[in-house]
Amino acid sequence: MGDKRIAFQTHGFAVVVCRHPVSGKFLAVSESRGRGWWLPAGHVDYGQTFVEAALRETQEEAGVDVTLKGVLAVEHSLTSPETARMRVIFYAEPTDIHQAPKSKPDRESEGAEWLSIPEIEAKRGLPLPHGLRGEELLRWGVYVAGGGVIGPLTVSRSGRYEGIFRLNDPGPVYVGTAAEAVERGLSSPSHMQQSGIDTANLDRHEGAKQWTPLHRAVADGAEERVRSLLLAGAKPDGRTHKGRTALHFAVSRNNDVIVRLLLLAGADPCAADSEGRTPADIADSVGDDKVLRLIQLSRE
């Protein structure tokens, strides 16, 4: 093939996770052709942005006008040596909280409903068309309902094709060295100092119990300190003298916010301590519903 370049085609898809701000229920679409319940989603048409496609698909499939509030995920995967698929998963809320979802079938969908998490879970395992098309409706519903991180949405204002959106904020957790965080503009030396973070001893084990600064922050329930340590590059799976990780601590204290931060940073829910107990074991025995669900989702 030499230096000849091949045109690389990327197919875009917009997916919308829409939650009602009053009821807390999620917008679910009964897919056409008996494919089951799923999220409003569809192909980005020629000449459209992802944002425009998200708004159009939600209106066409669910009959609801929405306001996009943020981005949950951006996915890019190869489908062949010459083609790829890119999906942008948006978080949205209805523009009019009183607007009823579509009730009459058409070629776009069979209809739509606002469903609670228990109602979505009840459809799990049911045969199509009554069951779920896939796990994403439930997975994203649980994530958002549990206070999951939603990235900011910034639409380019200087030109239609200059940018679809920018993720100016990488989220609350950046796993890497402090130097890399500073280099990427995610933090600064002064911010680290103001947060009381000793970047030279992030993973230092201290005392007879061999706790790291992350263990101490989790034990204190100091969510912002945990966030800052992870941002600075602290390893989430450091061990105490009994082999316990910070996730062991967070789960045993039922702190779902810190559990979520640690899992996002790559903490292992199946790491066994010296007694053979894993964070998942602790969640099964003493975890509240939020913590248990977070651990379960991390293992799927």
TrEMBL record:
InterPro entries: Ankyrin_rpt, Ankyrin_rpt-contain_sf, NUDIX_hydrolase-like_dom_sf, NUDIX_hydrolase_dom, Nudix_hydrolase_domain
Residue ranges annotated for the Nudix hydrolase domain, each copy included: 8-142
Domain of life, per lineage: Eukaryota
UniProt keywords, alphabetically: ANK repeat, Hydrolase
ANK-type repeats, residues: 209-241, 242-274
GO function terms (MF aspect): bis(5'-nucleosyl)-tetraphosphatase (asymmetrical) activity
Annotated SMART domains: ANK (SM00248)
Pfam family, one: NUDIX
BP-aspect Gene Ontology terms: AMP biosynthetic process; ATP biosynthetic process
Name listed for the protein in its UniProt record: Nudix hydrolase domain-containing protein
